[in-house]
Amino acid sequence: FEIHLLELIQKRRARVGYTFKKDEIEDPMIRRIQSVFQRASIKWKDDVKLWLSFVAFCRKWAANVQLSKLFSSLLAFHSNKPGLWILAAKWEMEDCFSSESARQLFLRALRFHPRYPKLYEEYFRMELMHAEKLRKEKQEFEKADMDVGNLEHAEEVLTGELARIVYKNSISVIKSAKFHVSLLSIAQLFDFAKDLQREIYNDLKALHTDDPLTWDYVARQELVIKAQPGEELPTTKQAKAKEVGRREEKCCAVYEEAVKTLPTEAMWKCYMNFCMERFTKKTSSRLLRKKRLERTMATFWKAHVLKLLPEHQYRQLSKLLLYRELLKESLEVADAGVKLFRNSEEMWQVKLEAMISLKSEEITKVFNQAFEYLKPQICLPLWFTWAQWSEEAGTQEEAEMIYKRAVFRLRGDDSATMKEMYLAWAYRSGGYKKARDVFKSLQENRPFSVGFFRKMIEFEKEQESCKMENLREYYERALREFGTVDSDLWMDYIKEELNHPLGRPSNCGQLYWRAMKMLQGESVERFMSKHALHQAGRL
């Protein structure tokens, strides 16, 4: 309440342009809010969200003295949370411009969490920011031709030697290629740290040759290597495409060496990801597009022969080729994936989508093969695809046969979902009479969904001569299945009796008492509330 009131006062001041008496109005309010936060944080010390709300308030209202004390208390209670140490150090560095205080906080944090990578990353970044700030200060002083006297800093500090010490200490504790790459990415943000960047890059290649991430990073660097001094940059589109192709070849040469040195699934996955990323890049060069496709397919078949690709990459590549309208290649990839992952419904789905796009004559045969290998409980998407395809490409008799097979082969909720789809198809293809025949044929074939009955009610209402006795039949059958849990069904039934030209409002009282007897738990209260609102004309 106090915070909202404070914000309202601030808005009114901005609107009327009144800037006086802030020390009499806002300052006491800020102190009161801080007092409430202090009492709350003492009572609920474990509530980190409360502490962070307090921090956010103090930062917004520039209460730096209070915030310094607050961070001390917060870290005393929650020293086991590295993120809070980082938050406090960043505040010292970015808001208070105190590199020394930030450094002390990071050093204290590392005593509590000596193996937490994020702490080292942020400490490393802070030291580089500190060095950059000092370099800028020195440049400004030199421009102004001022005597800096004792403000002169050692050359090692200006070149980022402190960051280098942090780097060396961190890699002796955390031996991970991912961590190494994250430090290198931070160092690359600072132009003055070229020597440090080279050192980290060389250490990465020397210390983590058995990690796919290292090879992946080294290979991708070939794409971003800048032109050497005196080397002319390509200007025409053709020359640029040729240069991009040359760099991609260099990347692939590194990947080829990598998969020979480290022939693992993870390494081939990195190689395939690179090929697919380049294949998806837009280019106006037909030759470059062709090269990328050939490279991607060649890499895929090499990995496939070695059986060193995960299932999702087969699906990913097949869909990508399908999107690019390379139907034959898409089917080849999907077929290769199905042979390795016969129990994967998603893999069969991808293959069938490719076959449908190719208008293959063996689609029905492949659907039947899929159902032989797959468990019934995971087949719903395939049945849906088959039914949809038969609607578009086959006859009504074929489509109905597929829907009937699906309804009787599937179990539980999947069967109920298929019944809804079957009923909707019947109405689309044969109108109300066909839908009613399907409804009657399935009305004793449990399980059902509420949507199955609601669809039939909706179809009845769309008819010119909407019969009330048919609506009653559908509602009664729905209530037989869901009358104990679905309060909306009862309310809709009551409204139908009230609003339909042939309805009987006198039945509403009886329906109300039936609902009260059948509904269970919270459904009773929901029904009573809706019924009361409806009677009052508010629903």
Automatic annotation (TrEMBL):
SUPFAM superfamilies the record matches: TPR-like
Cross-referenced Gene3D superfamilies: Tetratricopeptide repeat domain
Domain U3 small nucleolar RNA-associated protein 6 homolog C-terminal positions: 249-519
InterPro entries: HAT, TPR-like_helical_dom_sf, Utp6, UTP6_C
Entry GO CC: Pwp2p-containing subcomplex of 90S preribosome; small-subunit processome
GO molecular function: snoRNA binding
Pfam family name, one: UTP6_C
GO biological process terms on file: maturation of SSU-rRNA from tricistronic rRNA transcript (SSU-rRNA, 5.8S rRNA, LSU-rRNA)
PANTHER family recorded: HEPATOCELLULAR CARCINOMA-ASSOCIATED ANTIGEN 66, U3 SMALL NUCLEOLAR RNA-ASSOCIATED PROTEIN 6 HOMOLOG
Similarity comment: family membership: Belongs to the UTP6 family.
Entry protein name: U3 small nucleolar RNA-associated protein 6 homolog C-terminal domain-containing protein
